[in-house]
DNA sequence: CGGGCTTTGTGAAAACGTGCACGAGCGCCG
DNA sequence: CGGCGCTCGTGCACGTTTTCACAAAGCCCG
């Protein structure tokens, strides 16, 4: 039997690497590369080849032994697995500095995540247009979510309002959240949640910085070996 | 002998949680809470108590059995371990939308990471003042880094310039990087690197969204159980 | 058409992180 | 001042992720 296909669950660590492969593959494709080996892909991604192969094997057996992977086909498969064959409009809650930057940021809609709505509570924000989208009041959230069939919400409010925003989003029917506020938010079981926390990242760096200062020992982290850098030249 | 103290290496996963504990502890302290149990801390952090205790045990034995942890003292210990007893000025490379948002963002300097410099290459940006800091040309990077003794660099350039920015930062003497560009960058061994990638986060959410659509099975992720939410009321 | 070279796909082992369970230590109360 | 109840600290078992290593499989060349 050739391939049982993809309804096996993919480990989260692997899922988190698929977008990286996808980006690399897309770049390579644009440069006219048709075929790529796990070794090359690993090199670009800063990983080792075995990990790349194992990750890709969760998608199915799409490589050719002795040759590698066909770039275009692999792109298709990764996109399919990640659910990128459809658009996922997002709603941004909090139209402050960050919310506006995000809304104005092209690389958002470009990649299949158009801004389907912006929400705020401040009089001064509601009604204004940011990144081509009219800011609506929190009261209208459910209506916005339902009319555009939005399932991903981005929280860009101050930390104190983040839980409230999350609750409102979930109540409105959103099932995935991306939280930029520096606050732990709790969500019902079954809702996906990821966070991006600047302060946490900096503090982690600080830890290793300090450590470097005391022991002259370097260590793990996401440090990528420098060896053989490849510039992507056209 | 009481406690061999902290020169044992702390697992990265634990390091990444310490900033979260720190934030919670600081909030609790501000509200007048003097003592906290691993159970309570776990509740606030959305984790389980055993993990909290294990994480804290890497710092030393600072709890009191039958009682819990003294908040103020624990704050001090976590800060010490994370290297937050000193400021870590950062230099931001790329003064575009994101770079400006970051520079203007208070919660940066507030937490011990003042913006010590901003760098760009565009004529239109160099010389302007953003968030109280004058934007300098890339050529002046080394001088900025050395004069202010900066060891952390933030990359906020377009993806195509990210590797170049990283190389320049490392050459200038920076030893920790936080990369916002959607590109894998490679750094020499011994340099710490963390990345924040919006597209990756959204694509991970997309994966689970899609999966939810096919199987009516929910799963892992960072999903936090909703149970007993605590609002931090003064 | 067969042998050699290359690279995949994957079991199995190792490393790592998490969660459980419980002994040890401390404070409090009677 | 002794016993009780609470919570820490941690050994251990479990689950997950990474790494290793190699057989299987395809391609190319002679
Ligand atoms: N600006 C940055 O560079 C940056 C970087 C990292 C993290 N953050 C975090 O992102 C969040 C937003 O930052 P910011 O700089 O945009 O802040 P901001 O104050 O500029 O914007 C916050 C916006 O949220 C709105 N708001 C408040 N309560 C709300 C609610 N209940 N529902 C909907 N909207 C509400 C406010 O009206 C305001 O427009 C903060 O939590 C901040 O810590 C910001
Ligand atoms: N804007 C957002 O909300 C957002 C969100 C997530 C990620 N990002 C990423 O952050 C990065 C910056 O985004 P942006 O919106 O600020 O882009 P931008 O185009 O507004 O700014 C980029 C800046 O970098 C400068 N630059 C270019 N090459 C440089 C070099 N070699 N050295 C120094 N500076 C250089 C440019 O002059 C420009 O000022 C991008 O990689 C983007 O993908 C942006």
Structural features, described:
With 234 residues, the first copy, chain A, is of the alpha/beta class. Chain A folds into three domains: 12-81, Orthogonal Bundle (Arc Repressor Mutant, subunit A); 90-195, Rossmann fold (3-Layer(aba) Sandwich), CATH 3.40.50.720; 202-233. Chain A is 42% helix and 15% strand. Chain A has nine helices and ten strands. Chain A has helices at residues 12-30, 38-45, 49-57, 71-82, 97-104, 106-109, 141-148, 159-172, 198-214; strands at residues 35-36, 63-64, 68-70, 90-93, 115-120, 129-130, 133-137, 152-155, 176-179, 192-195. Chain A has a seven-stranded mixed β-sheet with strand order 6-7-5-4-8-9-10. In chain A, strands 1-3-2 form a three-stranded antiparallel β-sheet. In chain A, strand 2 (63-64) and strand 3 form a beta hairpin. In chain A, helix 2 packs across helix 3 (49-57) and helix 7 packs across helix 8 (159-172). The longest helix of chain A is centred in the first third of the chain and has 19 residues, at 12-30. The two termini of chain A are 41 Å apart. The model of chain A is unreliable at 1-5 and 217-234 (pLDDT under 50). Chains A and B meet through helix 1, helix 5, strand 9, strand 10 and helix 9 of A and helix 1, helix 5, strand 9, strand 10 and helix 9 of B. The complex binds nicotinamide-adenine-dinucleotide (NAD) (2 copies). Chain A binds a DNA duplex (30 and 30 nucleotides) through helix 1, helix 3 and strand 2.
